[in-house]
Design goal:
mainly alpha, 3-stranded antiparallel beta sheet, 10 helices
Length: 298
């Protein structure tokens, strides 16, 4: 072996012995006696029973429900805008999410839209399975269909239609109403200042005398009910309102059952033979008695 290597080895040993070192000894914990309540470790082949999972309800989860409500609101508003612009072809779920820029909503939200939200939404309908479009309150597409609807309401006595409902159902509503202004009456409701549309039936137009108009406008019956109006008319000697209004059905009185016993009446067909029948019955009775007496034991 090389002498230089041996010298270096000896010098290394001397330096190692000269440097002080401190060793830490590990303290052993006192062993505890096994208790009966201590759980045994599970073996690899043993599995812990899983807790039953509760069904998820998105309505009770604030974060998820708000997100889903925002997704559905955006879809319904987009489908309404498409309908008002005249686009009536239905869309699939993928196409709806693409047009609303919501392709990254996640699989759970998408499944919720397909199974629950879109099929059960009252503002949407499925003309074809799996494809959706906006469902308006009235099926009107142009001015002719709108006038037909107003005329049907007028003939059936259903009253007018709110302008808000027409604007939600009719595409290009402002242009159609402007073109059909002569055939439609606009009346503002005093309660909430909403406009109501009526059919303008020109056949009912007639001239009214100005004196009658003044009398009509001078009479105010806003704060009077039907009973007060009827009392006023009776004082004036007018009883034209007694046949109007809703009549209450009168309860029919039941007839009491008679307590007399029914007597059987003989037929009156053979009254002229009453004497002959009595004598005939007497003779038959006597003949029967004689026969029984003759045929008895001797």
């Amino acid at each position: 072996m090389d002498a230089a290597l041996l010298r270096e080895r000896e010098l290394f040993k001397k330096r190692a012995l000269a440097t002080p070192t401190v060793e830490k000894k590990l303290q052993k914990e006192p062993s505890k006696a096994p208790s009966s309540s201590a759980k045994k470790p599970l073996q690899p082949w043993e599995s812990k029973p899983a807790a039953p999972k509760e069904p998820m309800n998105y309505k009770t989860m604030t974060g998820s429900s708000n997100k889903r409500f925002a997704i559905l609101t955006k879809i319904v508003n987009h489908m309404k805008d498409r309908h008002l612009q005249g686009e009536d072809h239905p869309l699939s779920v993928e196409e709806i999410l693409d047009e609303t820029n919501q392709l990254d909503i996640g699989s759970s939200n998408k499944n919720w839209l397909i199974t629950e939200a879109l099929p059960n939404n009252p503002k949407l309908e499925q003309p074809v399975h799996g494809r959706y479009q906006f469902k308006p309150l009235f099926k009107v597409r142009d001015g002719k269909s709108l006038l037909r609807l107003l005329k049907q309401h007028d003939l059936k006595g259903l009253g007018g239609i709110l302008l808000d409902d027409v604007q939600e159902s009719l595409p290009n509503c402002d242009k159609v109403l402007k073109a059909r202004a002569q055939d439609i009456l606009f009346i503002t409701r005093p309660i909430d200042k909403k406009k109501i549309l009526f059919y303008n039936d020109k056949s009912a137009n007639f001239a009214v005398d100005e004196e009658f108009q003044k009398l009509w406008r001078s009479v105010t019956v806003d704060a009077m009910d039907d009973n007060k109006i009827e009392e006023y008319l009776e004082k004036q000697g007018i009883r034209s309102m007694q046949d109007h209004g809703i009549r209450k059905p009168m309860a029919q009185k039941r007839k009491k059952a008679s307590l007399k016993k029914r007597q059987f009446k003989r037929p009156r067909d053979n009254e002229h033979l009453a004497d002959i029948l009595e004598t005939y019955e007497d003779n038959t009775i006597t003949q029967k008695g004689d026969l029984q007496a003759n045929t008895g034991p001797k």
